[in-house]
Write a structure and sequence with these properties.
Strand order of the largest sheet: 3-9-10-16-13-12-11
Largest sheet: 7 strands, mixed
CATH architecture of the largest domain: 2-Layer Sandwich
Low-confidence stretches: none
Number of strands: 23
Distance between the termini: 34 Å
Number of domains: 3
Mean pLDDT: 92
Number of helices: 18
Length: about 525
């Protein structure tokens, strides 16, 4: 685990050093679990959002977009169940005075058992070499099977206790597993209590007349309350989807793991409205479709897995997470939920307005069911960034740190260098920049030896470096270097745009799906 901790520390420091993520209000000692996206981070984040939007909205003729306001009428949150039920089970350690999410303590305990499984698998793989069959080993090795059964038993009990709101049993489970405070090692725990996660605020000019509002804890409700507006104005036929990206806010008590769990974060959600009875088919469709989107980025199929929910939300009839292998283990990246007709029915009841769909083919009205796909943009950013950061030992024994971001997402697509700062080379370089910047984000650098400039761009994640030398003045060719392979080619200046486009074009990447 120490290795993974070291890798995660590298990720956090690299994100700051190369202008990706800064601590919010850092000059005032920062604000816990709130981060700012810096000059490169904002570009990477925008590129991920665009990649999602193109695949979700542009590529589907029955999915449209929406941008609902962050403030919503307070009854929205009563209808959605957030006022009464949007809470986390918290437990305090009496000695360290630290507060933890009870379910996360138990999940982290299970993660340690998973790490033991990984070690057993690694040992066996080393022992058996090419003859090693991972699936067979995992399903037949007594020790591994025992570990898996232990994890299943613990998570099943946790899920049932949370569902039954049996917080006494959640505490009993923590005590039986002898889970200690990560900070102090103490097992002196308080009872488990529920804590509502919504941020409250006020709307109005004076304290007496002000209305109590909430900052939205999710973006989905803005879609549900606009269901009929979009359906009628867009003349949408079921099945159809409404997609939205935007900020959401949760007063996370145990916000941690850098940008993985923040108090202000961004979601990318799509609510797909379907005919009741077809939810099984669409649930399978969206699970498969969303996993293909992730795999198109080439981060490695082994880094993803589905996790079916033991504990279903009261409105769901099926739910699964796409989990990603972060430096701190497999964690939820995207949720696919079959939400039945709970949302539209609840808003219909609380608003007194009909939220039904008239099906012309059947000549009947019904309340659509909803299939949801919901992904955290910040988590996706962390998945891409942490997976791409690596140290490579080169043939000469030196080590280069490289950020192998998928080229389609990289903030800067090409850096342009004059070999020296004289002889007309900077002028040619700047002319190339002028030409390329209409299509791509490009960067100019003339400081230090070319080798050092290459290293800087490798670490910043730039897929291409273009060097102008004295031969360029003679034959109009330049050297283009590829970040991942470090291969260099001599190419004509007029071919640069096509070479870069082939590697970074969204179409080239999404076609893999």
């Amino acid at each position: 685990m120490a290795n993974n901790d070291d890798q995660f520390k590298k990720v956090i420091s690299h994100a700051k050093e190369y202008g990706y993520v800064f601590q919010s209000s850092e000059i005032y000692d920062g604000l816990s679990a709130v981060y700012d996206y810096a000059q490169n981070g904002v570009e990477l984040k925008k590129n991920i959002r665009d990649y999602w939007w193109k695949a979700m909205v542009q590529m589907h003729d029955n999915i449209v977009g929406l941008d609902a306001a962050i403030f919503m009428h307070p009854t929205t949150w009563k209808a959605s169940g957030h006022v009464d039920a949007f809470s986390d089970p918290l437990i305090d350690n009496k000695d360290s005075k630290k507060r933890y999410r009870a379910d996360v303590l138990v999940e982290d305990y299970c993660l340690k058992i998973e790490n033991k499984i990984d070690k057993e698998v690694a040992k066996a793989a080393k022992r058996f070499g090419n003859a090693f069959n991972k699936e067979e080993f995992v399903s037949t090795n007594g020790r591994v099977v025992g570990y898996k059964e232990k994890i299943d038993t613990i998570l099943k009990r946790l899920g049932q206790s949370l569902e039954n709101e049996d917080l006494k049993d959640v505490k009993a489970l923590i005590e039986e597993l002898e889970i200690a405070c990560p900070l102090s090692g103490s097992r002196n725990w308080t009872d488990v209590k529920q804590f509502n996660l919504m941020f409250g605020t006020k709307l109005g000019a004076s304290a007496e007349t002000a209305m109590d509002l909430y900052l939205r804890p999710e973006t989905a409700q803005g879609i549900f309350v606009n269901f009929l507006n979009v359906q009628k104005t867009g003349r949408m036929k079921i099945p159809f989807g409404i997609a939205q990206t935007g900020k959401a806010f949760r007063n996370e008590i145990v916000a941690r793991q850098f940008i993985f769990r923040m108090r202000e974060f961004e979601q990318m959600e799509m609510q797909f409205f379907i005919k009741p009875g077809t939810q099984g088919k669409w649930y399978d469709y969206w699970k498969e479709t969303r996993l293909k989107w992730h795999l198109s980025l080439g981060l490695g199929a082994d880094n993803y897995r589905f996790h079916d929910h033991e504990k279903l939300a009261h409105y769901a009839d099926a739910a699964a997470d796409i989990e990603f292998k972060f430096p701190f283990g497999f964690k939820e990246l995207e949720g696919i939920h079959s939400r039945t007709d709970f949302d539209l029915k609840a808003h219909e009841e609380f608003s007194g307005k009909k939220l039904q769909y008239f099906d012309h083919e059947e000549n009947a009205s019904y309340t659509p069911y909803v299939l949801e796909t919901s992904i955290g943009l910040d988590r996706m950013f962390l998945a891409v960034f942490s997976n791409s950061l690596m140290d490579e030992t080169l043939e000469d024994g030196s080590v280069r740190r490289v950020l192998k971001l998928p080229a389609v997402l990289a903030p800067t697509k090409a850096a342009v260098f004059p070999l020296v700062k004289k002889d007309g080379l900077p002028e040619v370089a700047k002319q190339i920049i002028e030409d390329l910047k209409w299509d791509f984000n490009v960067f100019y650098d003339e400081k230090d030896a070319v080798g050092k400039r290459y290293r800087r761009q490798d670490a910043a994640g730039t897929p291409f470096c273009i060097t102008i030398d004295h031969d360029t003045l003679e034959d109009n060719t330049v050297t283009i270097r590829h970040r991942d392979t470090m291969d260099q080619q001599r190419v004509k200046i007029e071919d640069l745009k096509d070479i870069i486009k082939k590697e970074v074009d969204v179409k080239e990447w999404l076609m893999k799906i």
